[in-house]
Amino acid sequence: MSEFIVGLTGGIGSGKTTIANLFAEHNITIVDADIVARKVVAKDSSALTHISMHFGSDFIQADGQLDRALLRKQIFSNDDDKLWLNNLLHPLIRAQLIEQIKNARSDYCLLVAPLLIENNLTTLVNRVLVIDVSETTQIKRTTRRDNNSVEQVQAIISSQASRKVKQDHADDLLNNDNTSLETLKDTVGKLHQHYLTMAANQLSKN
Which residue, 101, 116, 142, 181, shows the most beta carbons closer than 10 Å to its own? Predict the structure, then answer.
């Protein structure tokens, strides 16, 4: 088990996946909360059955998979439904994240979670790395990537912790506004060495 856990977070469109992949190039285990969140509502899962019973069969596609776009639209327009869904899924996701972290074997482990702060997953990590971008960049990247409207993206941004709150939680802040891939690689390389040192210090204490 990796004794040192770095939590990587940032708003939608900040480039979390790109940066996580750069850490993976250094053979660091990546635990991705988005991937876990998809697994817990996979076809025929108990969570998906509960969602169908609560929201209706319209939320399940013909192939038996969750209609994510419809569910996203529903919970962003109804706080009670969002709370119900969070109460169902968050304990399942947290348990899976903990299990994957326990199985990590790299010198340290990277927990990638868009809602690291909002869902209190900071209690699972030793250090928080925030990928920081402007709201303008978030909107531009996300509308281009996901074919969402500006209003949809703004609703998602509003539902997440503000940029200021994320910055306040950060032990390390990586700005990814118009940052070249080469610069990102260099920054991640330096952070990697820093985390290796911190992980070794943590191990020597235990």
Answer: 116
Which strand ranges, in their side-by-side order, compose the sheet holding 5-10? 29-32, 109-112, 5-10, 127-132, 172-175
What is the predicted pLDDT for the residue at 144?
A: 85
Domain positions in the chain: 5-205
169 close to 93: Cβ distance less than 8 angstroms: no
Angle at 99 between CA 96 and CA 105, to 5 degrees: 135
Region 5-205: CATH code: 3.40.50.300
User: What is the C-alpha separation between 100 and 33, in angstroms, rounded?
Assistant: 10
Beta strand extents in the chain (DSSP E only): 5-10, 29-32, 109-112, 127-132, 172-175
The residues, ordered by sequence, that sit 6+ positions from 104 with a Cβ below 8 Å of its Cβ are 1, 2, 29, 31
Judge whether residue 10 has pLDDT over 80.
yes
Which residues have C-beta within 8 Å of that of residue 5, sequence separation ≥ 6? 101, 108, 109, 110, 111, 124, 125, 126, 127
Residue 148: pLDDT band (50, 70, 90) is confident
